[in-house]
């Protein structure tokens, strides 16, 4: 390894500082132009993701029986409780109306008490882990 003379060392240091001083990385402003439909698609995707059934949420079963009665029960429920989702699941030989996607048992039991006032044979479905 060769040792540089002091004058060469100073010249090399000065050159490095000069080059480093003149470097400007990404000084430009970025303008993003996106299609307005992109935001709509993103919102639709978020809705779909939240409606996907997962096994870690509590549900309330409000009906078990024939198909036509299940459809009527679900439509009546959706009319009365607009903020709670509901779905019909076929489990041989009955159609079951399940409502809610409650993350905690406390939240599910609060809604269960309110729903029990209108629907008599309701019960809580625990998540399977």
UniProtKB/TrEMBL annotation:
<keyword id="KW-0732">Signal</keyword>
<protein>
    <submittedName>
        <fullName>SPOR domain-containing protein</fullName>
    </submittedName>
</protein>
<feature type="domain" description="SPOR">
    <location>
        <begin position="52"/>
        <end position="129"/>
    </location>
</feature>
<feature type="signal peptide">
    <location>
        <begin position="1"/>
        <end position="25"/>
    </location>
</feature>
<dbReference type="Pfam" id="PF05036">
    <property type="entry name" value="SPOR"/>
</dbReference>
<dbReference type="InterPro" id="IPR007730">
    <property type="entry name" value="SPOR-like_dom"/>
</dbReference>
<dbReference type="InterPro" id="IPR036680">
    <property type="entry name" value="SPOR-like_sf"/>
</dbReference>
